[in-house]
Amino acid sequence: MPPNPLLSLRPTVPDGTILDILHLQDVYPAMPAKIKTAFLQKAWHCNQCTVSRRMTSLWNHNLIEYRTGRGEYLVRRLGPVTP
User: Fold this and answer.
1) pLDDT in tens, the chain (83 residues)
2) List of domains in the chain
3) CB 32 within 8 A of CB 65
């Protein structure tokens, strides 16, 4: 089995951010998806502020595209941008 392409990002993306995207891809394989903040709090064992920071890290590393509102994230893309 070939290695996951996300692993090649390890020199520039924190391991925790890579684990977060791998987790989201596992739980939500089809896009678009609505992901409740409360679900992420429970899954990641953290509070809302930490969920926000972790999602922002995914955004800043161009691993996700989403909009927020009403206690959820409307995720349009998970994973790195593919040419």
Assistant:
1) 457 888 889 999 999 999 999 999 999 999 999 999 999 999 999 999 999 999 999 999 999 999 999 999 999 999 888 76
2) 10-78 (3.30.56.130)
3) no
